[in-house]
Structures are given as structure tokens and as C-alpha cells.
Amino acid sequence: MAIRLWRWTSLATTSLLAIGVSVACGPISLPVLQSGSDPSGVTAVGQPASVPAQAVANATATPSKPRPGALRSVPVRRDSLAETMALDGAVTAQTQEPIMYGWRSIVDDVKVKPGQAVKKGDVLIEFSQGDLPKTLDTARSNLEAATANLALAQAQAEAAQAATAERVAADQKKQQQAMLDAQVALSRAQDNLTRVKAGKTPTEKQVADTAVTDYGTTQVAAAQLALDAAMAGPDDNTIRLAQRDVSNAQLAVNKAQADLNVLTGGPDPAALRAAQTAVQRAQSTLQIAQAAKIDPKAPDQAVAKMQHDNAIEDAQAALDNAQAQVAKLKQPPADIDVQAAKNRVVDTEATLSAAQDKLDKLQAGPDPAAIASAEHQLEATKHALAEVTAIRDEVYSHPTPAELNSAEDQVRAAQAALDNASQAPTVTDAAGPDIAPLQKVIIQDQADIAAAQAALDNTHLRAPFDGTVVSIQTKPGEMPAPSKPVIILARPGPPIVRIDLDDSQAKRVAVGQSADIQIGTGTTAVNAAATVSSVTPGTPDGSLGASANMDVSWAEDQTPKLGTPVQVTLHLGVRQDVLVVPKSAVRQSGGRATVEVQEGTIRHLVSVQVGLSTADSVEIVSGLTEGQMVLAGPA
């Protein structure tokens, strides 16, 4: 390759020298390189040719012996030519969206890496929380306190409402009772008025007449008889009855004294002797029972022994009872029995004294005190007669004008009371706490909690959609500006290829053009077909260059990662039926293109205008005709 490059450089230098000489001095002879000639040297042919003064003249040269493998002679032909453009690109997402953080805060941690797939809601970046947790806790504590205050106020309000309801119910019940009472009072007043108008009832008049008759004929006479009896003194029968009472009382005293004497005089000797005799008999019986032998001839020894034992037990029980009776007789009387006997003696003596006093008074003749009492009773009865007589007169005097007026006034007052009771009572609500300000405090506390929670949530920058991380524009410790993205996130979908273009390239790229994409080289290279989907021109100020996006037909198992570099061969267009020469036949120098033409054994340089160019062919717009032979590099 180095030898070929040296040969082409030598040829170009020789050609340029020849052109320079021809321009300055006139026609010169150039060597002609034959296809297959010896590359070791060039032989000049002495046939001159005229070189015009233009950029390139038709040069002549003396043919020389060709050098095999150096150059080849190819014809100018017509063909279809496809134009391509080789560009560098990168795999990117169809839609990339910059993710910004709208607050100023320090980055604590970046949770993702470029190329990582994320789900909507995943945390991308954690920012410093600062005092937000404390602020949230304070807001929650304030809400709890406000809620408790509201609950207390509501309870107080409910209690006040309940008290009002109870008071209303009590007032209503009181009003109903007052109405009932007023209705009863009115009914009574009306009944009283009716009675007053009617005067005293026949029964009242009869009662008055009966009272006068009773006092006038019965009670006054009875009082008079009592006075007469008191002045006459006691009769013989009364004195005999009194004397009998004295005798009966004396007998009772004697009986009580005798009982006391018996109780305090010790045991009865006869009873004691009888009890002691019973003890002796019981002891003898016990001794006999104990001395008795069990009959050995008894058919049932167990029964005989049981009978023997029972006889001893019965004798022992009888002895115990007799001894208990003796002890009882010798035992002194109880104090309570003695005191009871003494009390009976005192009571009977008092009864005797009272009976004797009564007898003494009866035997003394009329009692001045009884006479005075009877006289007083007679006077009282006569006074009562006068009163009932006045009452009877008063009964027959009704109704009076005053009674009528009073009864009518009572009816009017009862009616007024009923009217007043019928009016609904005025209800005044119990003064309960005003809960509206407390509710506003709770609303504000809830808003504070929501704001604090939102601020705390905002310290976690989350993925707004499912996608792939394209790039990360920040790092821990930085405080990104709210106007700048911190992460570029690609939306789901097959990746595309993006190429950057300069101004000249951008003018030749259009939507719909096809391209070949290649990733890698050699046997591991991945190829895919693509189509230009959009072209974005650069900004006028040059801050952003032009670019183009390409849709790629990726194989299912060959989808590359975002950011993977690719080589793009863009197919710009196809020209039909144009003059074509190999690309190695055209020399470019100073913005000029020349081709070396072979005519027989003579070759000369021709200035040409080139058009479309591919990797191995060039379109000749002017300067050559179809069929001419030109010299090109090795195939």
C-alpha cells in the first residue's frame, strides 16, 4: 500500500511539474502509464502536444513500455449511481424528556444509573429533607391538639344543646302542667261562682239547722244532767264497786308478795327430798344393771349383750336426770326472775293505792272540781249553741254581693292565668363554645400537614412514567437550578438513531431517505435498515446544531442500549444514465478535478466537472464522453 501511495505521489508530482513547464515554456511530453506496465519506472515518448493556457491542457507524451499492475485503463461508461453519506450517530430513545426538580435543594443520593429501566413512581434522586420531618411532626401534633380541642368544644356544644333541649322539654312540661293547673283553677273558680250564685246548698242549710237543734235540745240538756249528777255526789253502787276494786287489788298484792317469798326462800324441802330419793333409786338401779351377768344360754349372745348394755345406759341416763333435778332445785333463782317478782309487787301495791284513793274520794261526798267542770261544760255548750245559731243565720244570708264579686274576680284571674300559661315560653339557647374558629384551625393544620407532606414527598424525585434513564445531569452535593434538567428520561418504545449534522450535511438530508446502520465491526457487527423520520435544523445563533432522527428496523434480539455509537450510511439519491468513472481515476487538487485520458499510447490530463460520488465511482458532468479510456488505480 505504501509503494502504491509513493507511485501515485510520484505520478502526481510529475504531472504537476509538466503542467507547470507547459504553462511557462510551451508543449512538453508526459509519460503514459499503461495498465499492467512496470511500476518500477516510466518511459517518456517524444511526441509533443500542445497545452493550452487554461487550468489543464491536453498533454502529449512519448509512449513508453508499460509497467504491469500500476494503473488500469477503464472506459467512461453510462450507469446508475447511488449517492451515500457516511455519518456517525448514536442510539437514542424516540422521546426523551428532561426531568427537572422544581425546588432548590441539595442532592443527597442518585438512585439510578444511565441505561437503567425505571417504573413510574420509582425514586430517581433523593434530595435533602432538612427540617421537613420535624415540620411535619409539628403540624401533626398541632392537628392532634386542634382535633382534641374541637372534640371537647363539640362535646360542650352538644351538652349545651342537650341542656337547651332538656330546658325546653322541662319548660314545655311546666307549661303543660301550668295549663292543666290553670284549667283546673278556672273550672274550680267557675264552679265556685256557680255555687256562690246558687247560695248555700240544702245540705248546708240542713246541717246548720241540725247543729242548732242538737246543741239546743241535746247537748245543753246533757251538760245540765252532768252538773246535777256532780252536785248530787256518788251513789251506793259506785261506792260498792270502788270497795270491790280495793279488795281485788289487796288480793293481787298478797299473791305477788307470796310469789316473791317462794322465789327467794330457797328450795322446797319436800321437793328436794323427793329428788334426792330419786337419785338413790337411780344409783341402785345402775348398780344392779352393772352387776347383772349375760345369760350364757341365750340363743343370740350379741342381742343379749346389746340388751345388757342398753339396760346399763338407761340406768345411767336416769341417774343423770335425777342428779340434774337435785342440782336444779338447789340452784338459786335468776336475778331477772327475782326482779320481775319484785316489780309485780310494786305494780300491785300501786294499783291498790289508786283504788283506795278512789274509794276515799267517793266516800267523801260530791267533788267540788267535778261540779266546777260540769258547770264549765254547761256554759261551753250554751256558747256553742249561740255559735251554731249564728252560723245557721249566716247560711241563710248567702250569697252576698261581696261573695259574688269575689267569685267573679277569681274566674277572671283563673282565665288570665290560663291565657298566660297557653303562651309558648321563650327559648334561649345555652351558650356553647364557638367551634367555627376551631374548625378553621383544623383546616389550616390539615393544610400545613398536606404542605409539609408534599414538601417531604418532593424530596424524592420520582419517575413520571415508565422509561429508561438516558443521562444524569447532577450528582450528590450539588444544588441544581430549577430551570435545568437533572435527568433525561426516555419513554418506552423501540430506540431510534440520532445523527448530528453540519450545515452542508443538513441541506442534503431529508425525511424519508433510507440508510444502513452498523454497530461494531467485523464478524460481530450488527446491521439494520433505517429511514430518516425527522430533520431538525440548527438554531440561527449556532447554539444548537442540526440533527436528524432515524427509525430503525431492529431485530428482536439485537435492540442495542441507549447511547450505543453507530455508523450510518445515508442514501442521498440515485442518478440514472450518467457518465461514470472509477473514483480512483479522479484527482482533486486546489478545488479542481482532473482525469488522465488514454488515447492509444498517448495519455493526457483532462479537467472535468464531477457530480455524485460513491465509495468507488464518480459522476462526470462534463469534460469526458462515453467510451473514452481513462487511467484509474488498481481494481
Could you please describe the fold and organization of this structure?
There is one protein chain. With 635 residues, this protein is an alpha+beta fold. Among the domains are: 147 residues, Beta Barrel (conserved putative lor/sdh protein from methanococcus maripaludis s2 fold), CATH 2.40.420; 102 residues. It has 11 helices and 19 strands. The strands form 3 sheets. It has a 6-stranded antiparallel barrel. The chain has a 4-stranded antiparallel sheet with strand order 3-9-8-5, with no helix packed on it. The longest helix is centred in the N-terminal third of the chain and has 67 residues. It is elongated.
In quaternary terms, these chains amount to: single chain
CATH fold name of the domain at 2-86 and 571-632, please? conserved putative lor/sdh protein from methanococcus maripaludis s2 fold
* Major sheet strand order: 2-10-13-12-11-14
Terminal CA distance reads 13 Å
Query: In percent terms, what proportion of residues is strand?
Result: 15-25%
Task: Point out poorly predicted stretches.
Answer: 1-66
For the biggest sheet, the summary is: 6 strands, antiparallel, barrel
- Broad shape: elongated
Reading the helices and strands in chain order gives HEEEEEEHHHHHHHHHEEEEHEEEEEEEEE
SS-based structural class? alpha+beta
Total strand segments:
19
Percent helix, as a range, is 40-55%
Radius of gyration: 77 Å
CATH class of the domain at 2-86 and 571-632: Mainly Beta
Q: Which second-level CATH architecture of the domain at 2-86 and 571-632 applies?
A: Beta Barrel
- Give the rounded overall mean pLDDT: 80
The count of helical stretches stands at 11
